Every structure is written in structure tokens, then in C-alpha cells.
Amino acid sequence: MDKKVVYYLVAGVALILVVWLIIAMTTQKPELGPDVEAPVDKAPQSEGAVNREIAEKLNLAEGQLPLRVTMDDNQQSALLTPGKNITLMLGADYDWTVSTSNEMVLAPRSVDADDARVQGVYQVVGEGRAVLSAQGVCKAGAACDQPTLSFVFNVDGVISENFSIEELTQ
Predict the structure, then answer these.
(1) Does residue 79 belong to any structural domain of this protein?
(2) Domain harbouring 126, CATH code
(3) Which of 5, 39, 91, 104 is a good FRET partner for 158, with 20 to 30 A between their CA atoms?
(4) What is residue 97's three-state secondary structure?
């Protein structure tokens, strides 16, 4: 065999190996160090777990979870003492505009909920009546039963020893 042919053959094999190595390196997933975790697509947390996270962000004591208010509570009322927090969780399918009728009774809290199902966190700050209301418009691409929704929740801020714990936390 001619030397030229051998050189061309060796060069061709080397070229094939270099191309294969480049392809292997570009398609390989990067290795993560011991302190770096791979991103995981986690399932959505339960509403209770989200509410516990909010309680942690508010630095609430154990057993002082905010009252979780959902669409199931539409048109309902609650007797609550000042200091009680409410997590409003109306879902992620609608763009919600939320308001409270009396911030002297029910005031918004500044809490980053990190969950699209949470429309806000509120705290009872005084005696009296407040209405927590929300208007929702179905988001583009969401599977909504209705194009718009309305929500109303009545809060009576009470300072009284005439109510049992069960009545105050309904």
C-alpha cells in the first residue's frame, strides 16, 4: 500500500473521531456539582401547603394558619378577631381584581405568595364589617366555565368574649 493512501486513511479516521467527539460533547448534559440540584418539574402544591408557606412568611406561630378562603366560600361570612389573617385563593384561570370595602377592618398584607392561585393575603385589623370582593376575567387559553366571575366574602371584625373559638374561626 502506498504511504499516501495510509496517511489519507489515518487522517480520515482522525477526522471522523474529532467530529464524533464534538457531537458527543455538545449533546451531553452538563454535570452538576455536589451543591447544585437538577431542576425538577414539581407538581403543584396543595392549597394547604401554600397556606403553610404563607404562614411562615408572615412569621406566624405554630397553629396560627391564615383562614384559607376559596370560591367555595363565595357569599359566605366569617366572624374574626383582629390579627387573624386570610389567604384568598380563587384559582389561576382568571385574572382577578380584588378589593376590600373597609381597610380599617380588613387590610391587605404585603406577602409574595409565589403561587398563581393566591390573589392576596389580608389581615383583620379592627372591629366592624368589611367586604372582600373580587371580579375575575377568564385568562386567554384557560378552560373557564364562565367568561367572568364575581366573588364576595363578608368579614366581621369582632372583639368580644361572647363568641366561642369555633364561632370566631368558621
Answers:
(1) yes
(2) 2.60.40.2020
(3) 91
(4) strand
pLDDT digits (tens, 9 = 90+) for 20-33: 888 877 776 666 55
Tally the C-alpha atoms within 13 A of residue 114's C-alpha that lie toward its C-beta.
Answer: 9
Q: Rounded mean pLDDT of 50-63?
A: 81
* Residue 143 identity: A
Task: Look at residue 49 and tell me if it is in a domain.
Answer: no
The number of domains in the chain is 1
- pLDDT tens digit sequence for 66-105: 889 999 999 999 999 999 999 999 999 999 999 999 999 9
Please indicate, yes or no, if residue 22 is contained in any of the structural domains: no
DSSP calls for 47-88: HHHHHHHHHHHTTPPTT-PPEEE-GGGTTEEEEE-TT-EEEE
Query: Which pLDDT score is estimated for 22?
Result: 83
In a domain, 112, yes or no: yes
pTM: 0.66
